[in-house]
Amino acid sequence: MLKKPIGIGIESYKDMIDGAYYYVDKTLMIKDLLDYGSKVELFIRPCRFGKTLTLSMIRTFFERELASDGSVVDNRHYFDSRKIMDEGDRYLEHMGKYPVISMSLKSAKQPDFYMAHESLIDEIIKEYVRHNYILDANCLTEAYREKYDAIMNRRAEPIAYAKALAFLSECLKKYHGTNVIILLDEYDVPLENAFFKGFYEQMVDFIRSLFESALKTNNCLKFAVVTGCLRISRESIFAGLNNLKMNFILDNGYAEYFGFTQIEVEEMLAFYDLCDKIDEAKEWYNGYLFGETQVYNPWSIINYVSMAITNTVALPCPYWSNTSSNTAVRELIEKADEAAKGEIEELISGGAVEKPIHEDVTYGEIYENQDNLWNFLFFTGYLKAVSQRLEEETIYLTMTVPNKEVNYIYKNTIRTWFDESVRKVDFQPFYQAMREQDARKMEESINGQLSFSISYYDEGEKFYHGYLLGILSGFGGYRILSNREQGEGRPDILLRPHNPHHQAFVIELKRVKHFAKQSEGCDKALKQIEEKGYATEFIHEGYEKVTCYGMCFCDKYCMIKLEEAGKLNKKKR
Fold it and tell me: How far is CA 353 from the centre of its chain?
C-alpha cells in the first residue's frame, strides 16, 4: 500500500488534504463548537500544537467561499470520510454557509511599533482584498464603498484600521445575508514582542480597539475563535468582553483537539509499520495533560515518524526545541533566584514542584513575582500538572517535566541560558587569582557563581567540566584544550599560553558526594596529574612555569589545591 507523506510544516487544511498527507482527524471540534461554543472562544495551547491548522480546518468547513468569477466554491470534498460527516444534517447544514474573516497576528513580530502596526494593517488589507468581490454588488452604499476602498488601498485614517474587522463584518453580512465567523491566530505574538521591544502600551491600545470592535460590539458576529500560546490578562485586551470563553490547559473542553492522543499516535505508527516505536515515542513525546486528557506533542511526533520511516534505527531527537522565541521564558529564567534554579535542578532530576498558578498574567507584571516563571513554563508546555489543589481561591499545581524531549531542552537550552547569564560576569579576578596561585580567591569566585548556575547531578563531572570551560573561555592569551592526549592520559583542561614566558596550567577535576571528601578529591586530582605526567610536555617544550590545579566539586561548592609541576609532594594552599 502506498504510504501517505508526512505533512511537516503544512498549516493549511486544504493543502493537507490536496497533498494527500497523513491527517489526524480533528474535525469533531466543529461539532463541539456548534454544541457548546460561546460567542468568542479563546484557546491557549503551547507552540506547535496544531492551532493554525485547526483554524484552517474550521474556516474550510464553515466558509461560503467565492471563486474569482463570483461562483460559490464547494469545499465539501475536503471532509469526505472525516468524522464530522457522520454527525448528521444538524451539523452539515452549517457547511459553507458563513463568510469568514481569517487573520494571523504573527507578522507583527517587528522591531518597533511602526513596523508592527504596518504589518497588522497588511494582514487586514489582505482580508479586504480577499473579499473585494462585494464591491461589485449592489449591497453597499457609496459611502461604504469609499470607506472599504480607502482601507483596502491604505488611504484610511488610523481609527478605521482599529475598527476594520468590525466594518468588514458589516459589509460581508450585507452581501451574504448571514453573520460572520472571525478566526484570529497567534493573538499574543504582537503583545509579547511589543513588551520586549519597548512599545507594549501602544500595541495593547491598538489590539484592544481591534478586538473590542470585532468581538464585543459586533452585531454581525456569528462566533469567533482566537488562539495563542500565552494567557494574557483579560483586562489588557479583553476588557468587558463578557461573551469570551477562555479554554486553558487545565480545562477539559476541547482537550483532545490540540495534540495527538495515545490512540491517534498508535494508529499513525501502525500505518507506517512502526509499532515497535510506540514505547520510545511515548517516553519522548507524550506526557502533556490538557484537562484530564493526556496528549503527545504533534510537531514532534510527525517529525519523529518522518525520520523513522527512512531510518528505523535513528535515535529520537528534541524536535520541539527552538520552535518559538520563548522570550518571556528566557527572560524569567535569566532573572530567576537561587531557589528557583534549585527547583529546576530538581525537575531535571525527575522531581516535582508545587506552585500557585495565576489565571491572569500581564506582561507588565511578569518580573514582579517569581511565581510568574512557573506560570510561563506551565502554559508554554515546559511543565505539566500532575495534581492540583485549591487554597484560598488560589490554584496550586504540582508540576513535573512532561517527557524526555522537554527534559533534554532543560538540560541543554535552558541550562545554556543560565550559563550565558553567568558568562556576562567579569571573571578577571578569577584569572588573576590563577596567575597568582591564590587558591582561596579562586574558590571564592567560583563558589559565588555556582550558586547562580544550574546543574543536574546525574552527569557528574561533565557539568562542572563544561561550566569551568565556559569561565575560562574569556582567559586571554591562552589556548584552552579539553580532554586532549598529553602524558599518559587525557587531562581535563590544559591552558597553553601563547607566550612561553607565561605560566601554563593543568587542571584536573573530581566530583564527590560529600563535602568531607573534597580535600581527598583534590589530592587525587593532583596525584593523577603527577602519575600520568600531564605537565611533562609543557616542561619539555620550555615553558618556564607550569601550575597544576586539583579541583573537587560537591554540589555547588568547589575546593581547589595547587602545586607547581615537579613539586607535587610539597603541598601548597
Answer: 20
Q: Burial of 564 by CB count in 10 Å (0-12 exposed, 13-18 middle, 19+ buried)?
A: middle
Class of the CATH domain delimited by 425-564: alpha beta
Q: Do the beta carbons of residue 487 and residue 533 sit within 8 Å?
A: yes
Mean pLDDT value of segment 490-512: 92
pLDDT per residue over 366-416, tens digit each?
777 777 788 888 888 899 999 999 888 888 999 999 999 999 888 777 767
Q: What pLDDT does 440 receive?
A: 94
What is 25-247's CATH number? 3.40.50
Residues 6+ apart with CB under 8 A from 480: 469, 472, 473, 493, 494, 495, 496
Distance CA 225, CA 103 (A): 11
User: Taking the alpha carbons of 107, 109, 111, 114 in that order, is the dihedral positive or negative?
Assistant: positive
Residue 545 has pLDDT above 50, yes or no: yes
Q: Which helix (H) or strand (E) holds 235?
A: helix 234-237
Lowest pLDDT segment from 177-181, 307-311, 371-375, 546-550? 371-375
Query: Which three cell numbers mark 561?
Result: 589545591
Domains 25-247 and 425-564 share a fold: no
Q: DSSP letter string over 315-371?
A: PP--TTTTSS--HHHHHHHHT--HHHHHHHHHHHTT--EEEEE-S---GGGTTT-TH
Name the pTM for this structure. 0.81
Beta bridge partners of 190: none
The DSSP code sequence of 454-497 is ---GGGTHHHHHHHHHHHHTT-TTEEEEES--BTTB--SEEEEE
User: What residue segments make up the domains of the chain, in order of their start?
Assistant: 25-247, 327-411, 425-564
Task: Give the residue among 136, 196, 131 at the shortest CA–CA distance from 167.
Answer: 131
Over 50: is that where the pLDDT of 571 sits? Answer: no
d(CA 100, CA 102): 6
Q: Give the DSSP letter of residue 535.
A: T
pLDDT surpasses 90 at 336: no
Q: Which residues contact 421 (CB under 8 A, 6 or more apart)?
A: 334, 452
Going by their DSSP bridges, the two strands 353-357 and 100-104 should be labelled as unpaired
Residue 169, SS3 per DSSP: helix
Q: What is the C-alpha separation between 478 and 489, in angstroms, rounded?
A: 21
Strand pairing class (221-228; 180-185)? parallel
SS (H, E, C) 405-460: HHHHHHHHHHHHHHHHHHHCCCCHHHHHHHHCCCHHHHHHHHHHHHCCCCCCHHHC
Q: Sign of the C-alpha dihedral, residues 279, 283, 285, 291?
A: positive
Q: Which residue has the cell 494567557?
A: 231
Under the banding of pLDDT at 50, 70 and 90, the label for residue 195 is: confident
**Coil/strand/helix, residue 566:** coil
Question: Would you tell me the crossing angle of helices 262-271 and 298-310 to the nearest 10 degrees?
Answer: 20
CA distances from 355 to 344, 384, 517 (A): 12, 12, 35
| pLDDT at position 337 | 74
